[in-house]
Write a structure and sequence with these properties.
The complex is a heterodimer. By secondary structure, chain A is mainly α. Chain A has eleven helices and no strands. In chain A, α7 runs antiparallel to α9 and α10 runs antiparallel to α11. Chain B folds into two domains: about 160 residues, P-loop containing nucleotide triphosphate hydrolases (Rossmann fold, 3-Layer(aba) Sandwich), CATH 3.40.50; about 70 residues, no CATH class. Chain B is globular, with a radius of gyration of 18 Å. By secondary structure, chain B is an alpha/beta fold. In chain B, the strands form two sheets. Chain B has a six-stranded mixed sheet, sandwiched between helices. Chain B has a four-stranded antiparallel sheet with strand order 2-1-4-5, with helices on one face. Chain B contains seven helices and ten strands. The chains are: A mainly alpha, B alpha/beta. Chains A and B meet through α8 and α9 of A and β6 and α2 of B.
Chain lengths: ~260, ~250
């Protein structure tokens, strides 16, 4: 009998596809053969609506445009929050003075959920894009700061000593030892920050917007259109999945050394 | 030794709070010496080395390299640590280049030095590998190549082979002797292994139990390559063992 050898990547793809396929089949079976069908439509109906929405319109735009609006908001807030988190976190991990200055403020701000800022963001920025980006900034900033901070603070003292012995000054030690040491932790923080950003953009769009995946869900709820709600949820899942895979690829590329491969 | 000494340590004292670890240590190391420092476990050998390199601030005394206060920023010093100290995000080649990059050597010189020392430690075929892909002995060889590549005035080694098995240790000890004879670098080698000290050094300094002081410094001019079963080797090893006993 001929044996087929699959690569590790192919096995991962097939396993993922099988897991999603099983979930869809279970969903289909439950909606067809149990009382669940009275509450929600089956995956065939939702996927058909999603497919139709890709080429037609849901409200004023197609689903791709709605996803594009949400994605643009997420990426803007995530980029600003991520950049600020990396700079402030690394500063706190590297400089005792920066840690003393920022730590108390950070510890106060960190536990506040981003949605608690919605009223203030509306007062400060109005109902436009700035308020949404501000909320996403808050959602991504906290995790990235924490990870960059601990990544820099926990840099291996022996490696710092080795660099110092070879004549490295403070700037060289930061750039050649502390920063690369912190990269894996920063990426872990960015992954969590991305998930939080998605959760927050939906909350922000539910407050006030005329486009975006959050808007699709809210209008679906207003119109008692459960198919539209589920289409929005599935679209969020797909975009989130794509972003997560992209982040993992970027990490694998930038941290090849941490994955034991060349 | 006097004025031609490479390293002069005078009245070196180190305290951690009230705990006296180094007590008025004075000694000299000649240019091109391979000085092995032995002492009882926990006597403060690593503290001694870290004080020499200013990783720790000393409590009192002075340490001179070429008659100037020692300063890793100004003097060309390399340090090989007990454990692996390769940068995991750099390849073997980049690790060996690290010190040369820091010191701003010209590109052609960097390439020449990296090629030379990768060849000497037998890692030329592994220059593109990351530390995670290497064995313990290969990692130590990367550290050794990195330390020698800058052709330091002073090389400090803190029990670098303590965690390796005996076969690897013998191999790397021979490699060190080869590099030392090739480059003429002044080396201070800390170890708790008396046999290793007698095998490697041309001088052996024995420290007392904590607080550490210098008990005695011996010349070790046994012919190389050394035979650890030779009567004169065994005799010197026994003498160092007798000196090290504090019980």
């Amino acid at each position: 009998m001929m044996k087929i050898r699959l690569s590790r990547g192919m096995i991962d793809v097939l396993s993922g596809a099988a897991s999603i396929g099983c979930f869809l089949l279970l969903w289909l079976a439950l909606t067809r053969h149990t009382g669940l069908g009275e509450l929600i439509p089956g995956p065939d109906v939702v996927l058909a609506a999603l497919f139709k929405g890709l080429f037609g319109k849901v409200g004023r735009h197609g689903i791709l445009v709605h996803a594009g609006y949400s994605l643009a908001r997420v990426l803007a807030g995530f980029a600003i929050g991520g950049a600020a988190g990396v700079v402030i976190g690394l500063s706190m991990g590297w400089s005792r003075f920066a840690e003393a200055v920022f730590q108390p403020l950070y510890r106060v701000v960190r536990p506040i959920p981003p949605i608690a800022w919605i009223p203030i963001s509306i007062i400060w920025f109005g109902l436009g894009e700035s308020a949404k980006v501000f909320l996403i900034f808050l959602a991504s900033f906290a995790n990235v700061t924490l990870n960059a901070w601990s990544g820099a603070r926990d840099a291996d003292r022996q490696l710092i000593g080795a660099a110092r012995m070879l004549g490295a000054n403070q700037r060289q030690i930061f750039l050649t030892i502390v920063l690369p040491s912190a990269v894996p932790q920063i990426f872990a923080g960015l992954q969590v920050a991305m998930s939080n950003s998605w959760a927050t953009v939906l909350a922000a769009e539910m407050v006030r917007s005329s486009e975006g995946l959050g808007w699709m869900i809210v209008t679906g709820m207003s119109n008692n259109d459960i198919v539209q709600i589920l289409s929005g949820i599935v679209a969020i899942g797909v975009v989130g999945f794509v972003l997560s895979v992209a982040m993992r690829k970027a990490e694998a590329l930038l941290c090849r050394w941490n994955h034991g491969g060349r | 030794m006097g004025s031609n000494a490479k390293v002069k340590v005078r009245h070196l004292t180190k305290k951690f709070g009230d705990l006296l670890v180094l007590d008025d240590v004075s000694f000299e190391v000649g240019d091109g010496d391979l000085l092995c420092v032995v002492g009882p476990t926990g006597c403060g050998k690593t503290t001694f080395l870290n004080s020499l390199t200013k990783i720790y601030d000393i409590t009192s005394g002075e340490i001179l390299l070429n008659d100037e206060p020692v300063d890793p920023g100004r003097h060309n010093i390399s340090y090989i640590f007990q454990g692996d100290s390769t940068m995991p995000w750099l390849t073997v080649e980049q690790n060996v280049r690290f010190g040369l990059d820091i010191k701003g050597y010209p590109e052609a010189r960097k390439r020449e030095q990296v090629d030379k020392y990768l060849d000497i430690v037998g890692l030329d075929a592994y220059r593109g590998y990351y530390p995670k892909q290497l064995s313990a002995s290969m990692l130590q060889r990367v550290g050794i190549a990195r330390a020698f590549a800058t052709e330091p005035e002073l090389l400090l080694m803190d029990e670098p082979y303590g965690q390796l098995d005996i076969e690897l240790r013998f191999k790397l000890e021979d490699e060190l002797v080869k590099l030392w004879r090739l480059t003429g670098t002044t080396v201070i080698f800390i170890t708790h292994n008396i046999e290793e000290a007698v095998y490697l050094g041309n001088r052996i300094m024995v420290l007392t139990n904590k607080p550490a002081g210098v008990k005695e410094t011996l010349n070790d001019d046994l012919p190389r390559p050394r035979d650890i079963t030779a009567p004169e080797f065994v005799e010197l090893r026994n003498r160092v063992t007798d000196l090290i006993k504090w019980w």
